[in-house]
Amino acid sequence: MVKIAISMDDAxxxxxxxxxxxxxxxxxxxxxDTILINSEERNPFxxxxxxxxxxxxxxxxxxxxxxxxxEDLFIVIVDGDLYDAHDHEYFYVGSRDYPTISAKYxxxxxxxxxxxxxxxxxxKETKKGEKKKMMSSIxxxxxxxxxxxxxDIITSELxxxxxxxxxxxxxxxxxxxxxxxxxxxxxxxHFCDECKEVVLKSSTGNEIMKIIEATSSLLxxxxxxxxxxxxxxQLVAPAIxxxxxxxxxxxxxxxxxxxxxRRNAEMTKSAVPPSxxxxxxxxxxxxxxxxxxxxxxxxxxxxxxxxxxxxxNSKDDPRLQYVRSSLTKMQERKIEHDVQLMDQYVQDxxxxxxxxxxxxxxxxxxxxxNQKNELEERVETTxxxxxxxxxAVYNVTINIPELV
Length: 404
What we know:
Layout: E1 2-7, H1 13-21, E2 30-35, H2 39-42, E3 49-51, H3 52-65, E4 73-78, E5 81-83, E6 92-94, E7 108-112, H4 121-125, H5 128-135, H6 138-159, H7 178-183, H8 193-201, H9 205-231, H10 233-249, H11 251-271, E8 311-312, H12 329-356, H13 366-394, E9 397-398
Parallel strand pairs: 1-2, 1-4, 3-5, 4-7, 8-9
Antiparallel strand pairs: 6-7
């Protein structure tokens, strides 16, 4: 059984989960999975320019760290410009592209989204007509090109096929021209006769054909979902906003509250030695009663809520009953994206909690503990984004104490 593991990225979280879940029918010889990468593990992949061989070696080190087998394929998604001595702005590179490292660092590939950068030559050189077509539905475009590139990488790694220079509407078209890339985004993916023959002769040929079939269906779904989303923004927005509020005040907040309580308990335990004597209460002068009110006038007493004059502390607050009419499409898209992230993070967190429950205190696997900590960090980051956007939507300050 070969595993195809893809690094999880916040910007692509929902799309990658959509992609891997669509491949359930291809599990006879291939298993799909997503891998969470914490901030420290991500550091080598955050540079603006990433040299091909070096970044493949870094990916292989991470592959070993994540307990992936040599025959497994590990795909890391980055934002930087992939380059080597021959060219730059590659859509993807793999260790198999470099003969000096391919044997020692097998089956790792790097996919770059640098083509979305305004400074990339892809964006600069796109013709006006093509650019209009490309930008008409940017989310649709971004998702489809990600899916298409993943299929290219998987096919190349598992069958040995290389992209061909001639553009014939095949999955393995090299797509040198920008128009070739746009034309390749059609939902009905297929191989040319020559490539199909090679694929079917490979040990994973049947699974590759199933992947192509599943990907074609997924591309159609993406096109349809984006079309419907554009038609129904006004209908969907209130429901999406409501779910965002639920995550802020309920499930997301519960995760952060539990983390805060755990950290407080750990600090208390480490700060007070077992043999330490009980704390002695401070002496109160006889002239001062412990319950006596402060002599400081109320007008000059500090107030924790002084800065949050218009604070909302509950999703049942009357001010959150109606979505402001000025809700923009961009805000709706952002909230929808964050809600999708939160939905997945909370599910993954609950699964991790169940896995950890099988172990006693102090015996939990480090990988599960790190995964839990990373999910908590992601929940906090996404909740901050939701808090900021929803506060702007309702023109109030949404107060979540765990985010202070």
